[in-house]
Amino acid sequence: MPTDVVMPQMGESIFEGTLTKWLKKPGDKVQRDEPLFEISTDKVDAEIPAPASGVLREVKVAEGATVQVNTVVGVIDAEGAAVAPAAPRPEVAKVVAPPAPVCPPEPAVARKGNGARPQPAPAPEPARPREAVARQPETVIEFPSAVEGQRVRSSPLVRRIAREHNVDLAQVLGTGLEGRITKEDILRFVEQHPAGAPPAGGVARPAAAAPPMPAVPGAAVPGDLVPMSTMRKKIAEHMVASKRTSAHVHSIFEIDMTRIVKLRERERAEWEKRNSTKLTFMPFLARAVLAAIREWPIVNSSVEGESIRYHRNVNLGIAVALEWGLIVPVVKHAEEKNFLGLQRAITELAERARNKKLSPDDVQGGTFTITNPGPYGPLFGTPIINQPQVAILGIGGIFKTPVVKTDPEGNDYFAVAHILHVSLGYDHRVVDGAVADQFLSVVKKKLEQWDEDIG
Hints:
Helix content is 25%, strand content 23%. By secondary structure, the chain is α+β, with helices and mostly antiparallel strands. The protein has 3 domains: 1-101, CATH 2.40.50.100; 142-202, Dihydrolipoamide Transferase (Irregular); 231-448, Chloramphenicol Acetyltransferase. It has a 6-stranded mixed β-sheet. Strands 1-8-6-3 form a 4-stranded antiparallel β-sheet, with no helix packed on it. The chain has a 4-stranded antiparallel β-sheet with strand order 5-4-2-7, with no helix packed on it. Helix 4 runs parallel beside helix 5 (183-192), helix 8 crosses helix 9 (339-354) and helix 8 (282-295) crosses helix 10 (433-448). The radius of gyration is 27 Å and the shape is globular.
């Protein structure tokens, strides 16, 4: 039976989405869980996977159209079924022929000097019955378990990575809930095994080609009038609403990061080899923020009417700059994670954001935000609060700076230090200046006197 492809509801408060790009054309083969089209909502840009395997028979909604959730945007049929003309856009409507066979017979063509006449190509093999094809898709998405009688639990992303790297998921130890294989598990397995090596007791299979990366919008030509993207519109709305809602005030502190810079330089290579992830400055900053929130929980609150909601957990938003906008994925229950857990969570969310793999839950429920434009070289910034939160920490660049220090005998001297400027934007309706400064004092002390094991 044909399978309808619908516009998903990406969160409880989302009622419509913009279909920004089809990744397949009518007549293309698709596998279940393979990225099929891209959408944009006020919460997230995302790739939507195919709900079934087969052939994309029809495209009902053109690129750029905004439709209500649960609207049928396309149809997937079993291989061999006829492909219907399917799109309002002429470019899409032209592509109606089914794809060529995987191994087309080579036509007999006369070669120079052999006297043979061209022979017509043999007629294509008739399509197989739907019943025979319908039994095939399961072999693509299901993997045998190392434990007899059980199925491997994994996400579409994990299965795609496994196909790309020729990995048998039955050989991967899952560390997630009920043995589920997480992204970290599959990436760790890939790193520990040579590319293309067959899994233990198995035979190597050809790896699938990696899907194309999302296209980066081209630069606008001076003089052109370019409409805002859906994400750009929502960013504009949220920023103006935040300035209108919160009484913004900013405090700026200078922090000596020399101890941490030297620690990172000394431990980075071995740490990354041991933990299979990058070592950035962000988990240091996150741990310092968590320490400060423990002492000043008002900074991790939000306003509800004329009341203040003190949040039980710290859901730490980490702003990620994208080629097409800005998004803030959230590390849930950040206070429960150690240094290594924070680094892995931050790295994974940033990667998923850049590859349009975030879910609605990944960008909701934040209670405090860190934005880090430091790698681009600013001294500091004055960020706008991410509603309904009451505070946001802006991170500047780390610069070698001459500073005056005092030795144990009380003598002053010049030294070169790695200086960082941080700014706390806070809602003065809830957070007083004295509280903001004491909060930043804890952040400063934690970073300058760092003594925590980084794992």
